[in-house]
Amino acid sequence: MHVEVFLTGYQIDEEDVERRTVVVIDVLRASSTIIAALANGARAVIPVADMDQAGKIAMNLDPSTYLLGGERDGDRIDGYHLGNSPLEYTPDVVKGKTIILNTTNGTRTIWNVRNAQHLVIGGFLNATRVVQFIREAGLDVTIVCAGRNNRVALDDTLCAGLLLYRLWEGQEPAYVSDAAHIALTQYLHDRDRLADALRHSNHARWLTEKGYGADVEYCLQLDTLPVLPYYRENRLVLYNESAE
Ligand code: MLT
After folding, report:
1. From the CB of residue 193, how many other CB atoms can be counted at a distance below 10 Å?
2. In angstroms, rounded to a whole number, what is the distance separating the alpha carbons of residues 31 and 106?
3. Ligand 1 in contact with 48 (CB < 6 A)?
4. Per-residue pLDDT of the chain in tens (244 residues, 90 and over written 9)
5. Which residues contact 91 (CB under 8 A, 6 or more apart)?
6. Which of 45, 105, 150, 216 to mutate to test the pocket of ligand 1 (most atoms within 8 A of CB)?
7. Can you identify the CATH homologous superfamily of domain 3-38+105-238?
8. Which atom of ligand 1 is nearest to the CA of 107?
9. What ligand 1 atom has the least distance to the C-alpha of 83?
10. CB 35 within 8 A of CB 125
């Protein structure tokens, strides 16, 4: 199985996703919000590339069935029901609802890779479930870190490294791409102090300074929500083996 890693999600070619399993990682916070929303009973999450697209989709839905969620500069977008804090996406809020999610890096990256054979969302919250799916699917894999504003984000890179470590059972193959090697090496470097390394990442510090420290702690939890957001017909839903 060939594994490719992109450390940022801005420039991905069709050939890097077609006929492959693609995992999008945006630990802080879009991936974690999507995982939490679906684990807590949301019917679906529709990831959008921008404000326009969010508005158009909302216009065609019955207002009682959807919630608009998302951020700009980390804060809830004016007029939206929810921000991008996974802690807001509780069962009483999201159960049965379709969430239209609009975030700066994460949902845009998902939109960029929507032509994958299989597109799933990964984070620390569901890492083991993602690795299990990659193995079952048996296709070549592209792991796409959303990064932050076209820059590498340590939180996403470490999560990619963790997935690789588990996929390869700790043994790096003889030939791997440079980006995969970097992600795995960084994970091996930080794995004994993973939570601390993550707390010191640029994005975590920035969120904490803005008052979202509880989100950071939530997103760092490992394997607490073993669900798999799977992209089908423009939306993310919980993976259902029998439907695929
Ligand atoms: C994003 O998609 O850019 C992030 O999830 C930003 C954030 O932390 O809200």
Report:
1. 11
2. 7
3. no
4. 999 999 999 889 999 999 999 999 999 999 999 999 999 999 999 999 999 999 999 999 999 999 999 999 999 999 999 999 999 999 999 999 999 999 999 999 999 999 999 999 999 999 999 999 999 999 999 999 999 999 999 999 999 999 999 999 999 999 999 999 999 999 999 999 999 999 999 999 999 999 999 999 999 999 999 999 999 999 999 998 656 6
5. 40, 41
6. 105
7. ComB-like (3.90.1560.10)
8. 2
9. 9
10. yes
0.70 exceeded by pTM: yes
Cβ(104) – ligand 1 distance below 6 Å: yes
Residue 26 beta carbon below 6 angstroms from any ligand 1 atom:
yes
In sequence order, the β-bridge partners of residue 44 are 98
Beta-carbon contacts of residue 131 (< 8 Å; ≥ 6 apart): 163, 166, 167
For residue 105 and ligand 1, the question of a CB distance below 6 A is answered with: yes
Locate the domains of the chain by residue range.
3-38+105-238
